Amino acid sequence: MKKVTELLRRMFKWRSQVVIDSIFHPFVYVKSSDQWSNHRDKNYYEHKKLETLIDSYLMGRRDLNAFDFRYPDKVLCFDPHLANTLDQDVFELFTRALDKVYPPILDGKDLDYQKHFSRFKDVKLHPVSKAYRGYILSMRLAYAYLSDKSSILLPKRISVQIPRTTIQGEELYQIEPSPRIPWHRDVGDGPDISVPEMFDLAVKAVKKVASDSEGFFRSQATSSREYFAGLPNPAPFLEQNYNFDTGLPSTFNNELKSLSSAEILRFGLPMINQNYERIL
Questions:
Q1: What is the pTM of this model?
Q2: Among 99, 127, 162, where does a domain finish?
Q3: Any bridge partners for residue 242, and if so which?
Q4: Per-residue pLDDT reduced to its tens digit, 170-207
Q5: Full domain range(s) for residue 156
């Protein structure tokens, strides 16, 4: 029972992450001009910098800062029986997702996904496990020894992920502009929802995810997706495959690969607005 309870807790967290990313990422991508299928360094750094700014802002609303919050401890997910190894259930969930998503993408770039990943029989040596260990180590060192000012001494790919304890006025304007402005000047009829409003939407959506998921486990259904799709008002983003970066159904991935973040927002605007309205 304890193992089942832990798996349910992780499942709720996983599904909640799907919903939160799908709500926030259209905003983050269009503001940073990042491109979901081809991250260029400058734009990707701006993407991570904005997400970090949002984290800092939201923690500030709870009178917390990044160091008091102890973020590295929040993402620990080691197997209790194998030291410094990603939990087996999480590892399997993650690698299955990779197996589903990445082979067609890499095949198009003349890279053999199976050749590179199927040869790792030892979980501890798998690239996913090694990357996770490296991430945890980097975050622990950064949070343990660094302050706002000294974080600039870190490699940029790490420093942009360390939330700050102060936010400048122009940065605050990105988070909650007044008066309201569309997310992008070229998508004038686009969303103008602010970060705190998106956060409130995310909280509502996550509660709905938990409620619908509990309903599934009480039912006799064998497919969660079919169960969610059959509900009169299901939690958004769970009734079909979604791209967490675009906030749109994965069936549109091929159409969106070559589009800019602003073009993707314009393309997906009706669906994005519809999902926000479903949560409200």
A1: 0.82
A2: 162
A3: 249
A4: 888 888 888 888 888 878 777 888 999 999 999 998 88
A5: 66-162
